[in-house]
Amino acid sequence: MHTLWFREHNRVATELSALNPHWDGDTVYQEARKIVGAELQHITYSHWLPKVLGDPGTRMLRDYRGYNPNVNAGIINSFATAAFRFGHILINPILYRLNDTLGEISKGHLPFNKALFSPSRIIKEGGIDPVLRGLFGVAAKWRAPSYLLSLELTQRLFSEAYSAAVDSAATIIQRGRDHGIPPYVDFRVFCNLTSVKNFEDLQNEIKDSEIRQKLRKFWYENPGVFTPAQLTQLKQASLGRVLCDNGDSIQQVQADVFVKAEYPQDYLSCSEIPKVDLRVWQDCCADCRSRGQFRAVTQESQKKRSAQYNYPDEKDMELSHLRSRQQDKIYVGEDARNVTVLEKTKFSQDFSTFAAEIQETITALREQINKLEARLRQAGCTDVKGVPRKAEERWMKEDCTHCVCESGQVTCVVEICAPAPCASPELVKGMCCPVCRDRGMPTDSPEKR
């Protein structure tokens, strides 16, 4: 997954650079970083967490409604060290490695302990795709009961041992998160400092108002982080699409890779999986395509560098580039009217190309919608035992497990029993929850609870 998301960042950065050749490297990097961060947030909260929390937990989580200063976002130690370890019990003892038809690769599957600290297996035994397919193509294991620091520390730590230095401050912060230590505001009270209720209460400690503002908006759905069109595209993101775009050669995935699906009937071609259209991040200017060196950047990225932080020779270089471009404009022609005609012609050509690209996108989206609608119209689905089920059909898988066939997917919910209102409840065949019997009630009657 680490490799997959590195590739996704580079894929987005490459496409953004092609769409905006006038962007400098820092702008491309920061925008790609922001997009990938939003994709991760969207996938985690919209696709993964509902599977973990179930319907009741998802309803408690609710949709994002903006920053709420009354919500404690800290991690309590009991959660970090206990509850969140639930993921360990879902790890398969076997690391499944599957080919493009979801069969076992020639090198076979691996016992989990043989897979740890063995990166050479990825290089020599098929790349990342077999492992990724094993993650989305095989169900999870069934749950059984059972200061301001010196630059030496932040930029050069371990630099002699590793090709990239370690940031000690970042490591300390992450360790604090791992152990769920009390949040900063609680430590202020513990240390007899003033309590804080909002970010403005921190203006003596965090004097830069821009930094305080940044702390308010890390979330991708906050106003001003992305345009409405960009936000609409980001909500097309799915882990399936990331797998298609960044795997070695993955051609098929299920519509929701967090749900086990039957192959091949419940798998989709990657061409059918919606994708984030990065053209809505393209700057609109008449001659950006022909004058790739011109640095037109967003307002936020313009703030990143002020003149006092530029290297002296870098400012000279920029002036040199500007003079060069001025000369280019002067020598286009002696008659200024010719220049105007040239610019209008170029704009017309660029707009025609842009319009054609938009039409292609609309056509492709229409095809995707048609395919998805056709798929949803297909009646029924198949349960884990291979039994065909009709659309909207409901059945009992076990005494306490209710299943339903919806939109081609089987969803099962386990009933949770309330505490019995008697000292000695009994289990009755055909019923999920223990019942309390009346004294005169026959032993085989399930009517009273």
UniProtKB/TrEMBL annotation:
The organism's place on the tree of life at top rank: Eukaryota
Residue ranges of coiled coil: 355-382
Domain VWFC: 379-437
Species the sequence originates in: Rhinopithecus roxellana
Any single biological process term in GO: response to oxidative stress
Binding-site list for heme b: 88
GO terms assigned for molecular function: heme binding; metal ion binding; peroxidase activity
One Pfam family this sequence matches: An_peroxidase
Listed GO CC annotations: extracellular space
Protein name: Peroxidasin like
InterPro entries (alphabetical): Haem_peroxidase_animal, Haem_peroxidase_sf, Haem_peroxidase_sf_animal, VWF_dom
